[in-house]
Amino acid sequence: MSEPIPDDHDRAAYSREGLARLVLADNATEVADSAAGLVGTRNDAGTGFGGRVGQARQLIELAERTLNAAIIDEAERGSSWTQIAACLDISAEDAEERYSCAVQAGKDAFDEPYRPDETGRRRIPQLPTAAYDPNWACAQLDRWACLRHVGIDDRQAVSASLVMAESAGERIPAEEETTR
Question: What's this model's pTM, rounded to 2 decimal places?
Answer without folding.
Answer: 0.85
